[in-house]
Amino acid sequence: MAGNLYRNVGLKTAFRWLSPLKAASSVAKTLSPGFSGGLLQTPRPASSGVRCQELHAGGRSPTQSPSAAPERGTFSRVTPEDLAFFRELLPGRTITDPDLLEACNVDWLKSVKGSGEVLLKPKTTEEVSQILRYCNRGNLAVTPQGGNTGLVGGSVPVYDEIVLSTALMNNVLNFDSASGILSCQAGCVLESLSVYLEDRDYIMPLDLGAKGSCHIGGNVATNAGGLRLLRYGSLRGTVLGLEVVLADGRVLDCLTALRKDNTGYDLKQLFIGSEGTLGVITAVTILCPRKPKAVNVAFLGCESFEQLLQTFQRCRGMLGEILSAFEFLDRDCMRLLNTHLKLANPITDCPFYIVIETSGSNPTHDEEKLHQFLEETMRSSLVTDGTVATEESKIKALWSLRERVTEALTHDGFTYKYDISLPVERIYQLVTDMREHLGDRAKSVVGYGHVGDGNLHLNITSPAKDPALLASIEPFIYEWTARFRGSISAEHGLGLKKRNYIYYSKSNMAVDLMGSIKILLDPKGILNPYKTLPDDLQ
Amino acid sequence: MAGNLYRNVGLKTAFRWLSPLKAASSVAKTLSPGFSGGLLQTPRPASSGVRCQELHAGGRSPTQSPSAAPERGTFSRVTPEDLAFFRELLPGRTITDPDLLEACNVDWLKSVKGSGEVLLKPKTTEEVSQILRYCNRGNLAVTPQGGNTGLVGGSVPVYDEIVLSTALMNNVLNFDSASGILSCQAGCVLESLSVYLEDRDYIMPLDLGAKGSCHIGGNVATNAGGLRLLRYGSLRGTVLGLEVVLADGRVLDCLTALRKDNTGYDLKQLFIGSEGTLGVITAVTILCPRKPKAVNVAFLGCESFEQLLQTFQRCRGMLGEILSAFEFLDRDCMRLLNTHLKLANPITDCPFYIVIETSGSNPTHDEEKLHQFLEETMRSSLVTDGTVATEESKIKALWSLRERVTEALTHDGFTYKYDISLPVERIYQLVTDMREHLGDRAKSVVGYGHVGDGNLHLNITSPAKDPALLASIEPFIYEWTARFRGSISAEHGLGLKKRNYIYYSKSNMAVDLMGSIKILLDPKGILNPYKTLPDDLQ
């Protein structure tokens, strides 16, 4: 899968950027003062004093891509003394064998690759604390890593950062079956937690394609969205507590298990979505919903996106509280599923397909609601064809049409991936405009995603890496998104790949404040360097 | 209402603390270093290096209550030049008439009273920005004020702080009926927004007893909980965007209207629940749920709290996604409602009463679910009696039994109010233990609250202010709460009254980090001084 996109870079060589991203655009530097607040004593590098529209006005050499890695920071290199310390602290769990390091140095898209020489596998918060205290003193950079399933190059080293893996921190700490509050270590795999909870009549409030590999700590660190957000809300509401080890090794214990706590600032929110740049999440408490007694999935076809949106409105009204997902894919996605994965279209050919899921407490009521809704939408010709599944195997088959689009894309060629958030009525217009804009320069331009959340996954393929095509896509796509106050990263985060595009979705002031918070919590910048923050604040 | 608790303090006299709170306990100071991070250059006052259990070990004079106001900060006093500036900026909206200042200087419980001499009523964000820029330069302290309905003394001046009211910032900015995302100025009254949305087939995701007065900006600044949290989650999930004016007058625009946005740290979370100490919220975008097509309310009686909890479990299973509230009050609450407000008990006398609300999209389904649930709980003797309402007037009557307990208490005598969050199975044990602990020293010890959120409102009355009684309540109640990792303020916040009790629910490190964030965002400390942060960090 995507093997053709991957250039093997020898270990211990310098980092090389393998991403297809490369743009003529660049980040302009100006003299606008950074956010200083009360603590800033020494001048910080001036922030990029430009807004989205001006991002490409000049400054850095136009041959350098804004997503290319910056120069290596002035971090120390790992010495034999350092290794001796780690080996004593983590006997058998300090990995330096190049073969074993391979997997943690490359992201799952195989689009970025680092040269980390040490992989540490702590089991306890205390061990994480000792590692970071040591690294902070010694000025050693650290990349925290969960399941390494991120899509923006946030979870692998860029140069020789030490990889701190949460893989062995996989214990459930507590589960309160009265309240549905789960407390666990950060390295628990999402699917394992789901299985654990299903036995206890609960489910996790989030579900992702990567559930078999991703860690809950990584989910929280990246503020993962996924398929259930429409129903159960974001992790900002469902995560009740966190334990975090800060850059200097101190343990910040906010691991409460309460639905309500208004005693001061909600510090844990700083770490949700900070991609490991502010601290290492070591434990999580999360509020879990009851396992629904009935789940139904409908797969429908629509003639236009306008009709799809009308179907969504009617669906919200008629299915109301049992609606748990409203996803879509377009005809081109279906074509890729047919061609590359041999998945058959269960209904007649249409420009748009919808996956609707209901989850409820009364199977009879849910079926009745769903049938009433389907009858009405068919009668009013909002949808042209459809099929419904109530059995688990059939439900899985329908869901796979939505979930396996990513996989189908990897077989179609070199893929340029975008994860855009927009007012819901705008989301497909971007695909149409992009298709028109690119003409026959792209092999496929496909759109799918979470209609209920206004989240579009726009993917563009070409037979091979194509800098000219990329130059046509960017900054076009970011400017288009910024025009409607959308987000250039709805759920994937910024990581390494998108850090310099932040100004399309955040004001200078907001970015400056982010920089000040980074300096407050990680003054030496050892935590996941080169990620999340734009280069002018690194 | 509560008029007997209110001592009239002449304007322009120094602030006087009228709260009943007074304890022999005090905050110990130690040499433990404060949270410094990377920016701290000068030593900060050492933080209170004690944990909950040790809070009362010594240090400050034992005659000084931890909730008493600290000394006035070294802020400037308002001069005629300042007034001239404000009058030019806000003609007719710069209030200095003592009669008109009365209401904004005292909280609605009439428990705290300040001596603010200026009330400013901006209409625009730009005006708020100019006010704060001016005040920050001139070192003038400012108390932001919404509907002034808080219960912890957070919304009124302590000394002569300038009151910055959001009362005239009451415009709806936008409503997207496709997504249910509302954008409005901070001064919109919650009930007005509810009315606005009802016409558009939506509702606000929060509902409070104070809805007729409270402002949405104040709701967000205090992270208000209320009656719908069980169903729609907290404001941390439903607030999508904020516009905030920082202490120095700069406008932080995070007013996006997107369900998903993972472009960097979620800065708006800093301001949710910070009680106006980090910035002044000027506009809010919030995700609103569809208006339910059917609402039912059941009022039930239980013989024991154990049975009440079992009823809750069964309720969650059987009503599932249509459950929108599960509230309780005890027999003593009912006695107060009967005695002081002449409200009749609609069912037979019981030790515990439950209010269950369902909200759903299909009236027939909802009634069926509710009746099945009621039948089963009656058959299994979990509840002993009950009544159900589907008409709006009857629904209101049943709800008033829960909502008017606060009012009934004010007629019972001097009230000591606590707002505690605990693991749900513990919440009533605290009431029982407190009753036993106080014996006949208290007039009434009553418990009510949000079972679904593990949130207990424990209230204790006495014929008059009673320092000896208070000394029996505190620190007993805080220690009890800390023992079970509860929160000493579930939804009311810390404000002035509870700021020094923070260590019962937050670690030293967390409080130190709060202090560093305060210094970063408001280095002169002009925003709502003496609130939220404990005195050792003021």
TrEMBL record, chains A, B:
Catalytic activity: (R)-malate + A = oxaloacetate + AH2
Residue ranges constituting the FAD-binding PCMH-type domain according to the UniProt record: 112-291
Location within or outside the cell: Mitochondrion
Signal peptide location: none
Gene Ontology CC, one term: mitochondrion
Group of enzyme by EC: oxidoreductase
GO biological process: malate metabolic process
Database matches in InterPro entries: FAD-bd_oxidored_4_C, FAD-bd_PCMH, FAD-bd_PCMH-like_sf, FAD-bd_PCMH_sub1, FAD-bd_PCMH_sub2, FAD-linked_Oxase-like_C, FAD-oxidored/transferase_4, Oxid_FAD_bind_N
Keywords: FAD, Flavoprotein, Metal-binding, Mitochondrion, Oxidoreductase, Transit peptide, Zinc
EC identifiers of the protein: 1.1.99.39
Gene Ontology molecular functions: (R)-2-hydroxyglutarate dehydrogenase activity; FAD binding; metal ion binding
Cofactor: FAD
Family designation: Belongs to the FAD-binding oxidoreductase/transferase type 4 family.
Purpose: Catalyzes the oxidation of D-2-hydroxyglutarate (D-2-HG) to alpha-ketoglutarate. Also catalyzes the oxidation of other D-2-hydroxyacids, such as D-malate (D-MAL) and D-lactate (D-LAC). Exhibits high activities towards D-2-HG and D-MAL but a very weak activity towards D-LAC.
Name of the protein this chain belongs to: D-2-hydroxyglutarate dehydrogenase, mitochondrial
Name of the gene encoding the protein in the UniProt record: D2HGDH
